[in-house]
Every structure is written in structure tokens, then in C-alpha cells.
Design a protein that fits this description.
By secondary structure, this protein is mainly α. It is built from 9 helices and 4 strands. Actins are highly conserved proteins that are involved in various types of cell motility and are ubiquitously expressed in all eukaryotic cells.
Length: 167
């Protein structure tokens, strides 16, 4: 339902909304909300989803929590943990999978967040990466991880590379 009804705002629109929210508790007339929809939940029931909920339900993915973490900062921090010689190659080979990645606008916003954060003082001098490249997954986003796990599990090498618990 989330994937069908909700979408991710572009980076600049989310910034404008956040600024308006901080400066005013009232609805700002210059900020046009997305259209509300009625979504059927069974044969005789509908749920009304306001436009503001449809558009900003997933902002928690991009908003930094109390520790200053978001999905974009997790990627950037992971790049900083990698050896310096591998960082550029890793930033050019990002694969985003899972059901959340299926949301309209997710990948575009994720890339914009990475670029924005990479240019902040916390990262700009240590990371020195200006762009990120994303691969298209070999299967549908919501079951790519399962597909990879099942392929790895079917390999003959798995038994020799695994740790077994003795009973």
C-alpha cells in the first residue's frame, strides 16, 4: 500500500517543506500539497490518505535522527570506513534493493541526499567524492536479496566456507 499510495519528494521540495514547517505552524499558501486519494482496503471500505501524508510519510528515511544518522549518512560513513583506494569504486557501484526502493522518486532523492551530504564539512575533505552511480538490479527490487541468498546457498562452496555449530 505504501508503494502504491506514497512517493518520495524531490530533494529541493523536501527542503522547502522543512523550512516552511520550521518557520510556521500554519499551512503556507505558497506550498502546494500533493493530491489526497481514497484507497480501497476491502470491498466496502476506503481509507482517505491526505496529500501531505502521501508525500512526506517516508521523510524519516532521509531525516537525520538524534545521532545524526540517515540512510545517506550510513552509506557515506561506510565509504569512509573503506580503504581510501576503494572509495571511488564503491561509490560508482551502489545497488539499492528492497521494497522501499520501489517507491516513486526514491533513487533520485537518495542520490541527491548523498551528493548534498558529501559536500558538507563532515565529509567533503575526507571523502572527496562528487557523484554516485547506481546499478540496476538483475531482478525485481523487492526480491533481489532473496534471489542472491538462494543462489549463494545453492553453491557447492557454501559447505566448505561455512561455520557449523556442534551439537
Amino acid at each position: 500500500t505504501l508503494v502504491r499510495c506514497c512517493f518520495i519528494s524531490p530533494f529541493t521540495r523536501a527542503q522547502i517543506y522543512a523550512e516552511n514547517k520550521l518557520t510556521s505552524n500554519e499551512s503556507n499558501g505558497s506550498f502546494k500539497e500533493a493530491a489526497s486519494i481514497d484507497y480501497p482496503i476491502d470491498e466496502d471500505a476506503m481509507i482517505h490518505i491526505p496529500g501531505i501524508v502521501r508525500e512526506f510519510a517516508c521523510e524519516a528515511l532521509f531525516a537525520q535522527n538524534i545521532d545524526g544518522r540517515s540512510i545517506a549518512t550510513l552509506v557515506l560513513d561506510s565509504l569512509l570506513e573503506a580503504p581510501i583506494d576503494f572509495r571511488r569504486q564503491l561509490a560508482d557501484n551502489i545497488l539499492v534493493i528492497g521494497g522501499t526502493a520501489m517507491m516513486s522518486g526514491f533513487l533520485h532523492r537518495f542520490n541527491a541526499e548523498l551528493i548534498h551530504l558529501a559536500n558538507l564539512p563532515a565529509y567533503i575533505n575526507r571523502l572527496v567524492i562528487k557523484q554516485f552511480r547506481f546499478h540496476s538490479p538483475p531482478a525485481h527490487l523487492n526480491y533481489t536479496a532473496w534471489l542472491g541468498g538462494s543462489m549463494f546457498g545453492a553453491l557447492d562452496v557454501l559447505e566448505s566456507q561455512s561455520i557449523q555449530r556442534k551439537t
